[in-house]
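Obj.: predict assembly geometry.
Materials: sequence records (below).
Method: joint structure prediction, all chains together.
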Amino acid sequence: MPYETAYTNQGFNLVGSRVNRPDGIDKVTGRAKYGADVNAAGQLVAKVLRSPHAHALIKKIDTSKAAKLPGVKAIVTGDDFPDHTGGNRSMMDILENCMARGRALYDGHAVAAVAAIDGETADKALKLIKVTYKKLPHVTDVDAAMAEGAPIIHDWVRTAGVQPAPTTASNVAQRSEFGHGDVEAGFAQADIVVEKTFKTEQTHQGYIEPHACLAQLGPDGSGELWVTTQGHFTFRNVCSTLLGLDVAKLKVTSSEIGGGFGGKTHVWTEPVALQLSRKANRPVKLVMTRDEVFRASGPTSSTSIDVKIGAKKNGRITAATAELRYQSGAFPGMWAMFGAMTSFACYDLKNVKSVGYDVLVNRPKVAAYRAPSAPMAAFGVESVMDMLAAELGMDAVEFRIKNAAKKGTKASYGPIYGPIGIGPTLQAVKDHPHMKRRLGKNQGRGMACGFWFNFGGQTCTDLNIGVDGSVNLTVGTVDVGGSRASLALIAAEELGIDYDQVRVTIGDTNSLGHNDTTEGSRGTFSSGMATIFAARNAIEVLKQRAAATWDIPVDQVVWEAGEARAKGKQNSNLPPLTLKEIAAKSPRTGGPIAGHNEVVADGAGVSFASHLVDVEVDPETGSTRVLRYTVIQDAGKAIHPDYVEGQFQGGAAQGIGWALNEEYIYGDDGCLQNPGFLDYRIPVCSDLPFIDTQILEIPNPNHPYGVRGVGETSIVPPLAAIGNAVSNAVGVRMNHVPMSPPRILKAIEDAAG
Amino acid sequence: MEVQLSGFLSSAAGGVQSVELTGETVGELLTSLELRYPSLRDAIEQGVAVAVNGEIYRDRRDQPIPPGAEVFLLPRLAGG
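Observations (raw structure tokens):
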């Protein structure tokens, strides 16, 4: 371990304050440059031809007429992407998703792309490309895809995780089982058992900025890519692999990002833009339309989940099981596995078993969405927890407190927990003023818990001190939620200077060593850790310069409050040297002063949240209004509380949309019926109440400041919390998300007989 | 030490749920595991996570494993 990462309980001057965001002015004045905001001299415009069929054999693609159209400079199809993957199946899946290879696997699957002098010409060219399809049977529903006789998406898929290994093809790509104890014996001990099946529909992350890039790739294999992404280093590695390039020869720069939430951790069109550029030997700009974003980027899974929980009359759970069926789109995924791992993670269970099935369907390749797969599992489990509490005649919060996991609990996914925060979040719910609000007619209250793993990963950071004492901090984790402000606070805290003296830049792939993608709630956790160490390295240089200036040994110099101080009575005549004074003399004392750090920031620690919500349901229309919403989550240490609260609120807002409105609707033809924000309705400000937050700070023992990631867990409880609230309001258990007005009305009508 | 396996990793090792292995670090442990179960090579190559006394390590192969630690092999995690 190269650096001491343990929590030290140090005091702070700046960390924890609510300073202005450094990117705020750029963003409100339009100066910030997003994916589509950069142009190059001589650039071409790329457009993609997409399959209108859910599943079809591509018998022939005739591009001859399009190629002759004046202004068309390059056309690519699957034939233009030779296999450089070296047999890596998951990389081939990514390539095949970017451009179909003989078969269109879902409505919207790319089959060809054109680069032309302008968009109008590119559109005309797309219409001149003649694709001969042979339609194949399709399946878009997860349960239907598992049924016997369902159309097989890939004849090479054998279900992994099954003994003995199957010999025939299946749409079930993987079975994953977690748990411990004897669930049958546990259920036999139960006084009450509740069992229910749930469904959740497919949703999109709904980022406002579509995928966009500007690609330049020459015949020598050297290129540049400007792109909206959560991980430009990962994009560089993936694009290089898919296109047979040297990693070092592809420079990738991340733009400002207009939302990602997991959807921009994967490449979709970038390899296509690069290959068009290589073919045309000109820069190529490719911007997805909203229609394309819905049809051909990576939404989350739709699911079908069975949950069964049994308990004694005293409220102690004796056994719990879940079977979770998640569709992963047209390519194998691991999404049900994450659902199975997270489903019962909040609870202390002696007998537990969760089984996940990852299922192929004719839909877009599923991507991560903020704590991927956990919200759907929580919807099922937390709904049954409420139903069981009601059957037991117990308060829903008390029931959860009685069964909450704690330090020493064997997690449902295996290991034994260290210090965790689920208990304190539940206690905070119980004590919150929100609980005392009186409910009116047609109103209901619900709560739910949520869990997510969090992780750190590879991180590399540079800190350079200018001759005027201002500081450039260069990090490689894309700022998706305000990390630049937090990292500037950390650098300023360590150096003992003002926040305004630090400017944070997201470095391109040629300026830093590899940084993992900003995912897993890792941005501030991992780059924060690397920033602490880089600053401390720079302080060592500052101390050496001061020692040299004073002509004393460096071990007689300490760094305090932004200045070097000479220790000991023999040095009492030496006045302190500030960072600015040392920096000003740096050209003549050894040159630039810098600190650098590369670290694998493991030890992120798991994360828990509890949410509380009040809703009112109109019994005539089935429309739900969220009246009050409270998020309580453990942040370890909130570096910049505004941004922590923003993450809490953002996750809740997305969860509210997922719970009440958002849904991919497929027709019988297997085509997406609502690929736009008019028909796929995300919540707007007028749909939401003020989302109250309470930050708990239970320090992470594996981070010097105690930081835990906060970006994802807040989307885990909302589906279940709102499901419980709506069910309490209408007196009928809701088991299908989204709980849209027609679905609520039908549930009320069905219950009435 | 006893290393516990779960999910598809257990299946890839022929259904084994726990195995006795040696290793002072996460990296040494994974090397021992791969030698014992070559069928796990692809999974380990593509990435796994190791929980040591409840703390999950995805990448740090130099992470020491203290004597008597609870060690759990997990699938590598992804996030949004």
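Conclusions so far: The first strand of chain A starts at residue 44 and ends at 50.
To do: check interface contacts against the pulldown list.
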